[in-house]
């Protein structure tokens, strides 16, 4: 069994009277892509700030790479990379200057800026000022900045939010490459499809509390219903939808009746999505 | 403190500072203009006073006036010419003795002597000239009071070597350079806060103490290098160089603390310039009193910039060294500690 890269034990944080994180506990294994999912304001960014030593929890303990983040934030921060939700680059400087500056802060020797820019698809734009780059390019540069120190853990806060498909896909590929390298990835997002595609395990956070945590497959097994969706032609020639719940005692009988009595035009099975499960557990959607 | 991180931050700040066209151009052009301005100003002061005389009926009175002692006398042909010359500033003062002066005198009346001044002569100068002319007439008429004057100059005797305006201007130029850099440094910090780059910096091995050290050293080095260059080029470090350098270092440290304070209350470049201008107006007051030889009110002596201006003025223009400036160095160092500590504490709260 892998060691824990991150261990969180009953942490809390509040902004004045408002409780942002309310006693959450979880662990992330080394080399794992851990999806941290929830709607805006659920406590994702506050959690990531506590995990990276930017905020101190009011209560509870956080261990990252075996170090207490509150007491040894410097040692932790030298071994992690962070991609912030908000674009915070030096706009009047070039992409290369931004990356070289951060590499010098980490004391990276033999830093290969061209290779890193090529990984995020910005090789030809390295000398351009950041202010002249598109939103997608800036976001890819933010991801590249999180990679300058070849960190053991990558914290990515909504890395693909609002991006064009090309940029989003590029970032997803980088995340998978990082896992191949052996890095642990802590990914917050409210894009459930992305989380499903990338994450080894996901945690649902809602109103500061973790409401579910498992692999996407197990969550679907536990909470989701497999459905057979069919389109049939009625006597009047119109198309109508039919749904049969699978894994039920009446499934075989319902299927038999469908094919015996109706004219089936199309038929396919459908799995519950993580979004469906989130709604089922919390009673609210992810965009709210 | 992590010196590698601090060094990287300073290099980045210098790039960012000069990449900003406004501050880059202001710094370079400002320095060149200040140096040019210094050298355009006259290097010497004309210490002689030219006095115009009109006295057609008593001209012989002035025949034996000895010239020297800083006064040059010129006689003119008419009272109108005398007035015109005074208005045109050819004469500092014009004296007209009317034709009935002797008749009045002999009849026991007090004769009138007319003294013409241009409109911009201060009252003190008018009073001084009135006394001078009275003494002169007494001497010419043989009624001089027989007293022996003993001159004792308290402080450096500046007779014959009055301070040129350009040297009086130096403390003001120093402050103008300092304030430009205060605004520049405040703008750099405000940018970090506004855009959230500070969040990214503090998530690296950089600690907040490294951040303040980096920003502080950037501000100090930017301001000091320019002021030092100004002082070198204007040859103002020929006397008491050690004292002047220490005073300037204390001065730039003080304004760096002020830059932290400005950054903590500013939201963007416009508010930085607004606050910076307000600070400039207050801090340059002591330097302005030096330029215009205005009396120094007691409230000016509590301004933090007063002590630096006084050290520079005394050291550069009066050749007064450490012993005469102890009373300035200590309060200046005190203000340094206050502003730097206050700036760090307040800005740290905003960063957090």
Describe the structure.
- The complex is a heterodimer of chains A (288) and B (352).
- Chain A has 10 helices and 13 strands.
- Chain A is of the alpha/beta class and 288 residues long.
- Chain A folds into 2 domains: 212 residues, Rossmann fold; 46 residues.
- In chain A, strands 6-7-8-3-9-10 form a 6-stranded mixed β-sheet, sandwiched between helices.
- In chain A, α5 packs parallel to α6.
- Helices cover 62% and strands 5% of the residues of chain B.
- Chain B has 2 domains: 229 residues, no CATH class; 92 residues, abc type-2 transporter like fold, CATH 3.40.1710.
- Classes of the chains: A alpha/beta (288), B mainly alpha (352).
- Chains A and B meet through α3 of A and α1 and α7 of B.
Q: Specify Rg of chain A, calculated over alpha carbons.
A: 23 Å
Q: Alpha-carbon distance between the termini of chain B?
A: 19 Å
Q: Summarize the biggest pleated sheet of chain A.
A: 6 strands, mixed
Number of strands of chain A: 13
What distinguishing features does this structure have?
heterodimer; A: 288 residues; Rossmann fold; 2 domains; globular; B: mainly alpha; 4 strands
Brief summary:
Chain A is an alpha/beta fold and 288 residues long.
Layout of strands and helices, then pairs:
The complex is a heterodimer of chains A (288) and B (352).
Chain A: E1 4-15, E2 18-29, E3 33-37, H1 44-51, E4 59-64, E5 67-68, H2 73-77, E6 80-83, H3 95-106, H4 113-119, H5 135-147, E7 153-157, H6 165-181, E8 184-189, H7 192-198, E9 201-206, E10 209-214, H8 216-223, E11 227-233, E12 239-245, H9 251-261, E13 263-270, H10 274-282
Parallel strand pairs in A: 3-8, 3-9, 6-7, 7-8
Antiparallel strand pairs in A: 1-2, 1-4, 4-5, 9-10, 11-12, 11-13
Helix pairs in contact in A: 5-6, 8-10
Chain B: H1 3-19, H2 21-40, E1 49-54, E2 71-75, H3 79-87, E3 93-96, H4 101-106, E4 114-116, H5 123-140, H6 165-195, H7 197-201, H8 208-233, H9 241-265, H10 269-283, H11 285-291, H12 304-317, H13 326-351
Helix pairs in contact in B: 1-8, 2-6, 6-8, 6-9, 6-10, 6-11, 6-12, 8-9, 9-10, 9-12, 9-13, 11-12, 12-13
């Amino acid at each position: 069994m892998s060691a824990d890269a991150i261990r969180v034990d009953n942490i809390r944080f509040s902004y004045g009277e408002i409780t942002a994180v309310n006693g959450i506990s979880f662990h992330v294994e080394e080399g794992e892509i851990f999806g941290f999912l929830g709607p805006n304001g659920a406590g994702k960014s506050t959690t990531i700030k506590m995990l990276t030593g930017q905020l101190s929890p009011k209560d509870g303990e956080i261990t990252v790479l075996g170090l207490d983040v509150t007491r040894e934030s410097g040692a932790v921060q030298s071994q992690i990379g962070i991609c912030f939700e908000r674009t915070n680059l030096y706009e009047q400087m070039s992409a290369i200057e931004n990356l070289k500056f951060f590499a010098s802060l980490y004391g990276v020797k033999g830093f290969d800026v061209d290779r890193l820019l090529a990984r995020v698809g910005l090789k030809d734009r390295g000398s351009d000022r950041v202010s002249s780059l598109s939103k997608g390019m800036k976001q890819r540069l933010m991801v590249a900045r999180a990679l300058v120190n070849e960190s053991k853990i990558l914290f990515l806060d909504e890395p693909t939010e609002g991006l064009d498909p090309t940029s989003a896909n590029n970032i997803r590929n980088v995340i998978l490459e990082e896992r191949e390298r052996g890095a642990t990835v802590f990914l917050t997002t409210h894009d459930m499809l992305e989380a499903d595609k990338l994450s080894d395990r996901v945690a649902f956070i809602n109103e500061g509390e973790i409401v579910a945590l498992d692999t996407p497959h197990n969550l679907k097994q536990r909470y989701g219903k497999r459905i057979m969706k069919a389109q049939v032609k009625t006597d009047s020639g119109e198309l109508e939808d039919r749904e049969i719940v699978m894994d039920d005692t009446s499934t075989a009988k319902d299927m038999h009746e469908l094919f015996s009595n109706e004219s089936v035009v199309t038929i396919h099975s459908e799995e519950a999505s993580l979004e469906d499960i989130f709604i089922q557990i919390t009673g609210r959607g992810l965009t709210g | 403190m992590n010196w590698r991180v601090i060094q990287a931050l300073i290099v980045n700040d210098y790039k960012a500072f000069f990449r900003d066209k406004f501050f880059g151009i202001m710094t370079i052009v400002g320095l060149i203009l200040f140096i040019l301005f210094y050298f355009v100003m006259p290097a010497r002061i004309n210490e002689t006073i030219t006095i115009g005389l009109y006295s057609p009926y008593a001209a012989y009175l002035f025949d034996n006036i000895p010239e020297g002692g800083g006064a040059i006398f010129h006689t003119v042909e008419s009272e109108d010419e005398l007035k015109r010359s005074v208005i045109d500033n050819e004469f500092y003062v014009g004296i007209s003795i009317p034709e009935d002066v002797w008749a009045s005198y002999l009849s026991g009346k007090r004769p009138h002597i007319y003294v013409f001044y241009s409109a911009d002569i201060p009252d003190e100068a008018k009073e001084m000239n009135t006394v001078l002319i009275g003494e002169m007439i007494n001497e010419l008429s043989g009624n001089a009071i027989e007293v022996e004057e003993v001159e004792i100059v308290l402080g450096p005797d500046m007779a014959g070597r009055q301070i040129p305006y350009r040297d009086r201007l130096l403390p003001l130029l120093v402050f103008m350079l300092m304030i430009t850099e205060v605004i520049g440094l405040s703008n750099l910090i405000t940018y970090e806060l506004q855009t959230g780059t500070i969040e990214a910096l503090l998530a690296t091995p950089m600690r907040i103490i490294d951040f303040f050290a980096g920003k502080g050293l950037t501000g100090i080095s930017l301001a000091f290098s320019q002021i030092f260059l100004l002082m070198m080029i204007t040859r103002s470090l020929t006397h008491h160089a050690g004292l002047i350098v220490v005073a300037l270092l204390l001065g730039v440290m003080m304004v760096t603390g002020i830059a932290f304070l400005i950054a903590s209350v500013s939201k963007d470049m416009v508010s930085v310039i607004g606050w910076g201008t307000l600070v400039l107006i207050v801090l340059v007051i002591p330097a302005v009193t030096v330029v215009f030889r205005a009396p120094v009110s007691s409230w000016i002596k509590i301004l933090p910039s007063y002590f630096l201006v006084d050290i520079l003025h005394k050291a550069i223009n009066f050749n007064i060294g450490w012993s005469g400036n102890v009373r300035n160095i200590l309060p200046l160092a005190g203000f340094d500690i206050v502003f730097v500590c206050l700036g760090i504490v307040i800005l740290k709260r905003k960063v957090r």
